[in-house]
Give the backbone structure.
Amino acid sequence: MVVVTQRFERLNEEKVFKDPVHRYIHVRDRLIWDLIGTAEFQRLRRIRQLGTTFLTFHGAEHSRFGHSLGVYEIARQVINIFKNRNDWDDSETLLSLCAALLHDVGHGPFSHSFEKVFGTDHEQYTQAIILGDTEIHRLLEQAGGDFPQKVADVIGKTYKNRLVVSLISSQIDADRMDYLLRDAYFTGVSYGHFDMERIWRVMRPCNDQIVFKLSGMHAVEDYIMSRYQMYWQVYFHPVTRSAEVVLTKILHRAKVLYQSGFRFRHQPVPLRTLFEGKMTLQDYLRLDEAVIMYFFQVWQEEDDPILSDLCSRFMNRRLFKYVQISKDQLNVDDKLKEAFIKAGIDPDYYLEVDSSSDCPYDFYRPGEEEERLPIQLLMPDGKTLHELSLESDVVGAITGKRRTDHKLYYPKDKVLALPEHSIAKKEICELLHI
Amino acid sequence: MLEDHAKIAALIHQAGEIAGRKKLQKMVYILQKIGFPFHETYRFHFYGPYSEELTMQLEELCDFGFILEKQTETSGEHYYCYRLTEEGETFLAHTKQLPYIKSIAEKLNAETAAFLELVSILLYFDRLPRKSAIEKAQVIGKDYNQTDMQRAYTFIAALYANKPVGLSL
């Protein structure tokens, strides 16, 4: 019981982190402070928030550590506004703050590529870190035997108090607000900005959801448009996607080589259990981007020409080029593969269709689903709710409009380096219109 | 390339026409959970497991002309129905190692989307004791009663019992 009291303890003095987005991040709870100090949370300093985006926007070197603190800070500010209002249960405050802080703790190095090649799932690792044998689990447990499970449930969106879940995951939540502003700041792009403080001020807890006062509609519109711009200008940038393709191919090649008994000059010891499909949580926690980048660096010297070439491409930013593809071009897929094989370029590692798709805003329609909760506006009578797209012409124009883009990535330099009169070269150039 | 797309197209083909995005989402999730190698990433959304990746694959299959998406309305509710096109059949004819899951696909397709949603939620919580899984489903989902739960568990047991031995895609 004494220990439980300690976990809810407030620090004698407030601790602050200087932050470029929020100016200061304020910590008053001992549990939050201690969680930040754990090895599992500190590991997030070594994992970039935007993966390979730094190869496109050189400023994008910021980490998941900063983002996680930012989400915590936004949740803290919003809860301060909710305090003492009907529908907000103050006893959920610490739980909400812990969930906000830890929502991304399971991310690994270059998560999306790893997930594609090895079938790992960062959300499962988040659950495993919170519920498994970790420093984080031991700290959370001191706040109550069921407290780690509650934190995991909030992050997994299966917690009974939907208002708490909405704070961390909804169409306008602490996670998105932080990453849009943080990613805009670090990439240096001029879009992605919106008046976050104005949004906080018009947020209200209402039954099991967060709603927004009608007077703040324009700030919400701005947020939706910022999100739209950031997706297409930053997150789906074709150069970043190309880097992601090359990175995925490296991991794929390394895995195939390992499984076929290839003798690496530089043994990938920390990756062994991953390649063997036997990775433990402790093995996973030992991985970070420094480890992966080290192997990419040394694998440039491997005897396998594909692995060394792909690593050299990634390290020296000689990425794949792309062509837009349509339905018609997709049908030439087999011909293109054959031409690549004829040219001696392995299509498994040098050809990839990559698609990007985003729907900037949508709402749940009975009987159908995008599984998105609508953004509700609170009318001046303080009771009636109207769904955002019905009030806002701007949002109405983009509601439910999914935009998709397909590109085919390939190593143009390798194709152009083929002998001038080679039939395969001619075929590839014709098929790719280059 | 497009192997996962082909599996989805094959599922639609073997199920006949699938009425509703939700139904299709839940069918793929259920098949994945009972061991069929569909690889789409699912996350728990507010109304059960949902895959953004599958949504995108469907859209791409439509863009490529391999499946046809048609909007229909029943009792004021809008549904998107999916079926394979002739081009889709050609696409499948050129794809190796497709699943043959006609019987289970038809069995799933014969159920309502709402029922498959409940089945999906219970499967999502299958690591929990049954009592806790039911509690979770009731907290998160709609007003399910004991009969719904019982029927869903019987359905799940039958799926596992009838799963082909040594199946592979």
In short: Strands of chain B lie at 18-19, 43-45, 48-50, 67-74, 77-84. Chain B has one domain: 3-161. The first helix of chain B runs from residue 3 to 15. DSSP finds eight helices and five strands in chain B.
